[in-house]
Design a protein that fits this description.
single chain; 255 residues; mainly alpha; 0% strand
Length: 255
């Protein structure tokens, strides 16, 4: 959501700047938009398989709107679940499963612990689940990075088309203005899409991929600890490699 907010604010600032220094309609050119927007979409999608294209919308929505989980809070919650499992038994975790709906990976891990699955089976299934999440985030990053590289190129192509049209119509002054508009605005559209929309979303997907890998590692370590019913202090020490202060979030909340 923060990414969308930043993009909207940037576009609004550009629109306000155009409004202060002239008419915003002078920045609208249907031909230039057709070249850059439609051309970028078609060229970008041509490099991906049909299954990737069909999966992309849902993956993009997940990247843009999924709630961000702090790693310290995730570690603290996992340690508390491990304490409950050791104190009251794994079946007691069944009552907390509905409250974990916002974190499907953790919910799945705890559900397998409740079902009494072996540590090896849980580790294998969670590894496949983590790979699937990684593939979705990687898809968004790849598509947006490819689009960010393509948009300026399409803008340059549109600029060349506009210049050719302008040079070909030097004997008709009425065609110079529209041709020059296409030449300049296509470059503008390409840079706008690449550096305000595509690259920021690609960077967001990459950061979420790294954070998701850390969270999945925390949850998987917690699930293995619950199955072994080991001392939660041992889990806390192992999580310190991923989070400097695993119980810091709960301590601050209690304070």
């Amino acid at each position: 959501m923060i990414a969308i907010f930043g993009i909207c604010i940037t576009v609004a600032l550009l629109f306000a700047s155009a409004l202060m220094n002239g008419s915003p309609s002078s920045f609208v050119n249907a031909g230039g938009m057709l070249i850059v927007v439609l051309g970028t979409i078609l060229v970008t999608l041509s490099g991906f398989q049909r299954s990737d294209i069909l999966r992309f919308p849902s993956a993009l929505m997940t990247v843009l709107f999924r709630r961000r989980i702090d790693a310290s809070l995730a570690a603290s919650s996992t340690i508390q679940l491990a304490q409950k499992a050791r104190r009251d038994g794994a079946l007691s975790l069944q009552n907390v499963l509905p409250s974990l709906a916002e974190e499907p990976f953790l919910q799945r891990a705890v559900s397998m612990v409740v079902d009494g699955m072996s540590e090896e089976d849980i580790a294998a299934i969670l590894d496949l689940e983590a790979r699937r999440t990684h593939i979705d985030q990687q898809l968004v990053s790849d598509v947006m990075s490819r689009a960010g590289q393509t948009a300026p190129a399409m803008g340059l192509i549109g600029t060349l088309i506009g210049l050719v049209q302008m040079l070909g119509g030097l004997n008709d002054p009425q065609t110079l203005g529209p041709s020059m508009a296409v030449a300049l605005l296509t470059t503008f559209y390409g840079a706008l899409l690449a550096y305000i929309v595509f690259f920021p979303i690609a960077g967001l997907a990459q950061r979420q991929e790294l954070m998701g890998a850390k969270l999945n590692a925390i949850y998987a370590a917690g699930a293995r600890s619950m199955v072994r019913r080991e001392n939660p202090k041992t889990l806390q020490m192992s999580l310190e490699a991923l989070v400097p202060d695993p119980l810091g979030a709960s301590t601050k909340k209690a304070a």
